[in-house]
Amino acid sequence: MDSPEKEDEKLQMFFDGELAPEEEAAVRRSLEGSPKAAAQLREWEHLRTAMKSVATDWAGEIDSDALFARIENEIGAPVVPIARPKLEQPGLRVIPDGRERRVWGGVATGFAAAAAIFLAVMAWPEPHLDPSPIVRGSQVLEADFGSNTGTIFEVEGGAGQSLAVIWIDDEEVGLP
Amino acid sequence: MSLIRHLLVIAVMLGASIASPASAQGSSLARSDRASTISSVPAEVLVVLAKEEQGKIDPQLGKMTALRRPPFNSFRSMKVLSRPKLKLTPGKDALVSLPNGRRMKLTLLRVMPDGRYKVKAAINRPDKSDYLPLLQVIASAGDPFFVAGQKYQGGTLIVGVIVDPKKTAQ
Questions:
Q1: Which of A113, A144, A166 sits opposite B133 (nearest CB)?
Q2: Over chain B, what HEC string results?
Q3: How many Å lie between the alpha carbon of A88 and the closest alpha carbon of chain B?
């Protein structure tokens, strides 16, 4: 007895009509006692019928005569050489002395970059030459306490800067 | 070659923009220009009543860390009584009334080349010169100076003056 794979292969060959007559007769005999194989054959037949039907429908939509006529015409037409546009070669290869131009291009680019750097360096303000760095805080230049006595303090601000405090002794004054 | 031309144009434009007078002259010139052209500067006066008795510190003073340091750290309560805003114009007096009847007179004398403000202050009763006849201070934008010591309602008045308060956060 053949293995299931072998039997399946033989069944497919039977379906496709590829078996020798004696083998075909043997398969036909075995189908009588095997409803599973018979069902498989019926399913394949159903599929084949469906595919044939679809193929016929598609074929009906295509004008095969016109298609073949066009193909024949194309084949029979004299061969005309296609005039290819002349490919533009890279400039540096076509132009004589291209290497020299490339060198000059590099020099000009380098000059432009050098000029930009030079201008930037010359025009950049130098912070260490700034005569008036930003100073934070407050300070007393002059205080006249009049007839009172007073003290000038320095207190540290939130940013660490020195803030001026003028403290003047006072007797409470009445509202005018 | 067009690429090279482009590069040259970019280089020239870059150089021209960097070498423009505004930036080439640096910030010092800009600052000295400001000194001569400034019309008015905003200012804020902070009038605080401080007491040694235990109490609350006004939340408005939360960022004023200087008021928690000597000589102010002996006060246990502080209350902002007023916070008038004014504009200081060079050579023109600005008056702020204090709760004890005195008035603070503030005058912007000039803007220094370094951007700081030279301010003249005086605190007196009207038509008197009985307390602080003259005070001259230089202050940077946003940094206060304080005049303290006036007695009021059992406490002490602390008057803080901030020129250009929005410029630098205190």
A1: A144
A2: CHHHHHHHHHHHHHHHHHCCHHHHCHHHHHHHHHHHHCCCEEEEEEEEEEECCCCCECHHHCCCHHHHCCCCCCCCEEEEEECCEEEECECCEEEEECCCCCEEEEEEEEECCCCCEEEEEEEECCCCCCCEEEEEEEECCCCCEEEEEEEECCEEEEEEEEECCCCCCC
A3: 18
Inter-chain touch A165–B145, beta carbons under 8 Å: yes
Return mean pLDDT, chain A. 77
Test the A interface: residue of B2, B3, B6, B18 with most A CBs within 10 Å = B18
What is the reported pLDDT for B52?
A: 96
> What six digits make up the tokens of A110?
């380098």
Res. A89 pLDDT band, cuts 50 70 90: low
Contacts of B167 in chain A (CB under 8 A): none
Q: Is B22 on the interface with A (CB under 8 A)?
A: no
Residues of B in contact with A172 (CB under 8 A): 100, 150-152
Q: Which residue of B has its CA nearest to A91?
A: B1
Q: How does residue A97 score in pLDDT terms, banded at 50, 70 and 90?
A: low
Domain limits of chain A?
A: 4-74, 91-123
- Here the contacts of B16-19 (C-beta below 8 Å, separation 24 or greater) are B16/A119, B18/A119, B18/A120, B18/A123, B18/A124, B19/A119, B19/A122, B19/A123
pLDDT tens digits for A152-169?
999 999 889 999 999 998
Q: Average pLDDT for consecutive 10-residue bins of chain B (170 residues)? A: 50 48 43 59 96 95 92 96 95 94 94 93 84 92 95 95 73
Q: Do B115 and A124 touch (CB under 8 A)?
A: no
Nearest residue of chain A to residue B99 (CA atoms): A175
Q: Is A150 on the interface with B (CB under 8 A)?
A: yes
Between chain A and chain B, how many beta carbons pairs sit less than 8 Å apart? 189
